[in-house]
Specification:
mainly alpha; 5 domains; Alpha-catenin/vinculin-like_sf; 22 helices; Four Helix Bundle (Hemerythrin (Met), subunit A); about 725 residues; single chain
Length: about 725
């Protein structure tokens, strides 16, 4: 709305319709500001330490909203230019100033509100810690029950607050860390109950005390990590050292190597050599592991040796090309780049195969939980010797699973999955010894129901983590094979009362075996194109770029359509496929719009080509939408429509493979300062309009009214330009 006011055209003739529209926009802005400020003032009244700052920001916002309403009060003016009343037509800079003041003051309110939320989480954590200290010192069951009841309520409150915060986090890495910490707290709450009860029942038992202390220690670490994430800080000013995985190392190395095509001088040969050395050092985690097969070890060592040779050849040609740029040398450089990247891809594939093969075998081997069952039986029998034997076997199993997690982290593919692997490793490291201490306690007190229940709880945590590892392994394989799309939100299938109103009248149809065979070739082509697009999007340094986001989304949806041709995936019927094709086409139209925005910033010779490709994409997506929406009666007509939808999707993906490198090249030029892009305009209307609608999830309103504040902000669409 603000953008509409600022960018309105100064036409000499102003119709009544235009004047009324301007006034309506001004009034809507003022009303939205009023609602927003009311919530801000309520928050100020509940938080006296920030009341003054919040009140000042609210007053500024209200004043700016009223100024905008006054300047847009033009509907009653027949001749605004001759009237002494100041309006948007006579003082456009006034609207700009008011809009800036509004943006500034609203941002202040949001920042202050965020500080209150952080303070709320810290206060809740402190209450939990204080109650935990009381729980550690209790000596009677009656006292323990009373305090644990209070502790439970405080943990529920903390869970709600941190859950809301996790949803609000933009950084996927922080979100994964928060999820891991909250999972620890959730599981440890039950462990704390049974471990404490066991300790109270058997106060002189050393293994029971060790078991309880381990739970309390782990909960304190998880609580501390939550606060680190919320406050974005580390204890004693330490910097977080991110573990480097082989996957991310190879990705960065390849980007640098491929960057030589654009610029021969942007890095030194020493940098490339160092990067490769770091990658090869990490491969030693595989070659030194006792659980890596002989075949995998030999292949990894062979590929490591080959990678060094390919880099030496690349450096040799690269140094020559720096001195003399001949056609032959540039061709030799291209060959060296391709061979180096191919070798790194093979190395990545080999370590991925080694890690996932080990994980598959271990998870399959341990699904029967024989060691845990044996510990429960021997513990109840009071057989200390047998318990000692099985605890040794559990320790071996723990070492295997920890090693599996370490190797999977190297090939996890994304930072959130990498963090999940680290969390799994920690869980096995900690839970293993806790099961052992719980089993020893039961063996010493075989008739104790509480000791038996305690062992059950820790064994369930172990089994649950093994089950989670199966899901994690599947996700790692999905990322490696480009199947990320099956977890994206826009793969929503038609539901009653949503999307098209005529869906109930359509009978869902599946492809039979013969039809799947006919369309298999087309599906395979689509699969290869999704891999190409994923490969192109991985080359972008800015993974949050709008063009990359749309490209990844389209690739994910195209992959689900390929799975449909095989009778697999989430799309079960032809109607599901047609609906997916419509969403795919809509995403393509949005990408076309983003390309137009980019073309407005381009000065060089690529602009006509970019515009031409953008128009071509837009046209192809419209054709796909028409095809997907067209009615088809009968089996033959339905199959023809399926064929046409996948064919047109394939054509769009082919074009996308050409567009992504072009856009990447233009943005790289901008980064290296070649001046091919001019500064983006300060008010991005399209982005504002689309961005606001994209982020409006239903939120729970909390006692401080923070969520109400956010809901009102979504109505003030100009904020999305920030």
């Amino acid at each position: 709305q603000i953008t509409t006011l600022i960018n309105h055209k100064d036409k000499p003739k102003r119709s009544d319709k235009t004047l009324q529209a301007i006034q309506r926009v001004g009034q809507a802005v003022n009303l939205a500001v009023g609602r927003f400020v009311t919530v801000g003032e309520a928050i100020a009244n509940e938080n006296h330490e920030l009341k003054e700052e919040m009140s000042v920001a609210c007053i500024e916002a209200r004043r700016a909203g009223e100024t905008i309403a006054q300047l847009t009060d033009v509907a009653s003016l027949d001749h605004p230019e001759s009237d002494s009343h100041i309006t948007i037509f006579t003082d456009k800079t006034g609207v700009v100033k008011a809009a800036r003041l509004l943006l500034s003051s609203v941002t202040k309110v949001l920042v202050l509100a965020d500080r209150i939320v952080i303070k709320q989480i810290i206060t809740s954590r402190n209450k939990v810690l204080a109650t935990m200290e009381q729980l550690e010192k209790v000596s009677s069951f009656q006292e323990f029950v009373q305090i644990f009841s209070q502790f439970g309520n405080e943990m529920v409150e903390f869970a709600h607050l941190t859950g809301d915060r996790q949803n609000d986090l933009k950084d996927e890495k922080k979100k994964a860390r928060m999820a891991a910490s909250r999972a620890v707290l959730e599981k440890c709450t039950m462990m704390l109950l049974t471990a404490s009860k066991t300790c109270l029942r058997h106060p002189d038992c050393e293994s029971a005390r060790i078991n309880k202390d381990g739970v309390f220690h782990r909960m304190r670490l998880a609580l501390e990590q939550v606060i680190e994430i919320v406050t974005d800080s580390r204890p004693s000013g330490e910097n977080e050292i991110a573990p480097i995985s082989i996957y991310s190392g190879i990705k960065e190395f390849k980007n640098k190597v491929e960057g030589l095509r654009e610029n021969l001088y942007f890095l030194s040969k020493e940098n490339l050599s160092t990067m490769l050395e770091v990658i090869l050092e990490h491969t030693e985690d595989f070659t030194d592991s006792a659980y890596t097969s002989h075949e995998h070890r030999e292949h990894i060592l062979e590929l490591s040796k080959q990678a060094k040779m390919e880099l030496e050849q690349l450096v040799s040609v690269w140094m020559q090309a720096q001195n003399q740029k001949t056609k032959d040398l540039m061709e030799d450089l291209e060959v060296a780049i391709l061979k180096t990247c191919q070798c790194m891809n093979e190395l990545k594939r080999e370590v991925h195969s080694a890690a996932t093969s080990l994980a598959t075998d271990l998870l399959k081997y341990h699904t029967d939980h024989m060691v845990l069952k044996a510990l429960k039986i021997t513990g109840v029998e009071g057989n200390l010797e047998a318990v000692a034997e099985y605890t040794c076997k559990l320790s071996e199993q723990k070492e295997q699973l920890v090693e599996m997690c370490r190797l999977l982290r190297h090939v996890s593919g994304t930072e959130p999955l990498e963090i999940t692997c680290i969390h799994a490793e920690d869980t096995f490291q900690v839970t293993g010894p806790q099961i052992i201490s719980a089993a020893e306690t039961l063996a010493l007190h075989p008739s104790s129901k509480i000791a038996k229940e305690n062992l059950e709880v820790f064994c369930e945590a172990w089994e649950s983590q093994l089950s989670d590892m199966s899901l994690l392994l599947r996700e790692i394989n999905d990322v490696f094979e480009g199947r990320r799309g099956e977890k994206r939100v826009y793969l929503s299938l038609p539901r009653p009362g949503k999307h098209n109103t005529n869906l109930k009248a359509l009978k869902p149809v599946k492809l039979d075996t013969e039809e799947q065979a006919k369309i298999a070739k087309l599906g395979l082509e689509l699969h290869l194109l999704t891999s190409d697009v994923d490969s192109e999007t991985e080359k972008w340094e800015d993974q949050e770029n709008e063009i990359v986001q749309h490209g990844q989304g389209m690739s994910s949806m195209a992959y689900s359509m390929y799975l449909f041709t095989r009778g697999e995936g989430l799309l079960k019927t032809t109607q599901d496929l047609f609906h997916q094709a419509e969403i795919f086409a809509t995403e393509g139209t949005k990408l076309s719009s983003a390309l137009h925005t980019l073309s407005d910033q381009v000065h060089d010779d690529d602009k006509p080509l970019l515009l031409l490709e953008a128009e071509k994409l837009n046209s192809m997506c419209k054709q796909l939408q028409i095809t997907a929406k067209a009615s088809a009666q009968g089996k033959s007509a339905t199959f023809t429509k399926v064929d046409a939808c996948i064919l047109k999707t394939r054509n769009v993906m082919t074009l996308l493979c050409q567009l992504l490198p072009l856009c990447c090249r233009l943005l790289r030029k901008k980064k290296t300062g070649n001046g091919c892009l001019k500064p983006a305009p300060p008010w991005k209307e399209d982005r504002i309009r689309t961005g606001t609608n994209a982020r409006t999830p239903e939120r729970r309103v909390d006692t401080f009214g923070i969520k109400s504040l956010e809901n009102h902000v979504t109505n003030m669409t100009f904020l999305e330009s920030k």
